[in-house]
Inverse folding.
């Protein structure tokens, strides 16, 4: 169980009176997730997820919740925040900012095939289109500004060759910014464990708490670096082709995006190498879950620096 | 099949490009419904209902759609309107105002028991609470003002005793207005065919196109006159008790509401007697579905005038 803030059934029962979701039947802590405390909540009216926000700045929470609400009302299968009786998404519970969202059916996949990559690509394309009418703005909280901050923090823990790799990649990325790529709100963390499948179809995209405004192509690069990986950390041509083709059928690529693809794959690898290094060497006090191995994304970055990136649409 | 405006697969496929709901898989006209043209629409992303509005004044449609959207984001299982890529709920298709909404699981019940009446009562109570933060206003389009209009129109078709019953009930209702009863947006048409059940639980409330701001108790009276009926048109004490108790557990009644209950049951019977008389004697040109027999609600009205109304909470 990985929850930081315990919630008793009696506390939850009381708290739910502020909503119109019926009476509590069951509450179960969710093991996954390292950023927030999550509970599966079943009421007489449906299945929900309760999230207590442990890390996120309170000022950013409305962006995430409103974005999820916006996408949900565009038909995107994502958790829909539930408004309380005073018509607000954001509440407090046991001293923490808290929100109730719908629970989606399905399970995440460990070993997706090309058909699953096509499903996630198509949904990502539709999600980007739907998100473009979302009016609020939050800069990608794990963008280039954060890379430089994180790089300074983790540099002392790296050996000389890793430090050189990091500095070289930061310099490369600084030379390759793409101000003309289509931008908009992106998920920015769409790993396999953040997508749910039901009977072979994608049934949900979850965990929007790294979302922000960024190049749309970056979202796809984050996906590709997880969904289309070979055992050697390369990109599987068939799965990457399926991801890109299905995305492109929903939102046609610009020629500029094709050119930017190899750089974007490196940017996405750099971002997760940095955050894993940071979590590993500078864990937050009280962090319950063991940090992921940073080496995985270092290898992905090295692989992307050395190899041509397949492009299929 | 009861659709007034045909929609071809090619037209629908094109039209759906304005949404982020995926590609069309299947489209099937819906047989039920006499007011609009409805289609079940299945896409690669989910199940939806397409409605082409045939009767409703265009100015009132935003009220209905926004109300459904408001209730859905409060967790009420009702059709959630889907916003298009320009972020609007209301579109046009084949010359008619049109909207796409989510399709809910479940089926309506012909012969509900007390347990089903409790389900609908509880949901109605929660729905009324959630609706109270809805900011838009539309007067109940089938309220006292409309009764007087409809009564003038249908009077020539009635025999002397029916005409006297109608005039007497209108006069009685005019003497018993309840300005202090809690008011808010109500469904106003929650008959058995507008509620869906799945595995014994209520899974949806549909068809909000008679909604308006009215006494909350009126909504419950409309329900009771359909869900709790005996073969003699009386109210079954067990089912009516279950309906009222479950509602009262969600939203506590005022003493004033208990006093108003018998009058409200008569008002609800009068409203449907009048609309059925109107549809029967003055059908709209091109109306495809045979009108319901008005006699049913005349008998309910006479029964409510003669009998004490059970009250249980």
């Amino acid at each position: 169980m990985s929850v930081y803030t315990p919630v008793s059934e009696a506390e939850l029962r009381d708290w739910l009176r502020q909503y119109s979701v019926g009476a509590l039947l069951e509450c179960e802590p969710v093991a996954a997730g390292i950023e927030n405390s999550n509970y599966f909540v079943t009421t007489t009216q449906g299945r929900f997820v309760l999230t207590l926000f442990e890390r996120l700045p309170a000022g950013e929470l409305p962006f995430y919740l409103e974005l999820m609400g916006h996408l949900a009302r565009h038909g995107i299968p994502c958790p829909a925040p539930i408004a309380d009786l005073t018509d607000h998404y954001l509440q407090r519970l046991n001293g923490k900012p808290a929100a109730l969202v719908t629970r989606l059916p399905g399970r995440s996949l460990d070993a997706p095939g090309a058909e699953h990559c096509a499903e996630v690509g198509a949904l990502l394309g539709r999600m980007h289109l739907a998100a473009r009418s979302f009016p609020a703005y939050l800069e990608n909280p794990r963008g280039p500004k954060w890379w430089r901050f994180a790089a300074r923090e983790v540099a002392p823990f790296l050996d000389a060759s890793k430090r050189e790799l990091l500095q070289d990649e930061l310099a490369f990325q600084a030379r390759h910014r793409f101000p003309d790529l289509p931008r908009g709100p992106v998920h920015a963390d769409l790993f396999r464990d953040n997508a749910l499948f039901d009977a072979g179809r994608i049934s949900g995209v979850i965990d929007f708490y790294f979302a922000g405004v960024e190049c749309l192509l970056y979202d796809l690069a984050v996906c590709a670096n997880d969904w289309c990986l070979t055992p050697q950390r390369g990109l599987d041509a068939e799965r990457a082709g399926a991801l890109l083709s299905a995305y492109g059928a929903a939102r046609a690529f610009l020629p500029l995006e094709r050119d930017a693809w190899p750089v974007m794959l490196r940017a996405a690898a750099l971002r997760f190498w940095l955050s894993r290094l940071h979590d590993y060497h500078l864990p937050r006090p009280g962090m319950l879950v063991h940090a992921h191995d940073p080496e995985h994304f270092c290898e992905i970055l090295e692989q992307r620096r050395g190899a041509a990136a397949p492009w299929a649409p």
In short: Residues 148 and 170 of chain B are 8 Å apart (CA to CA).
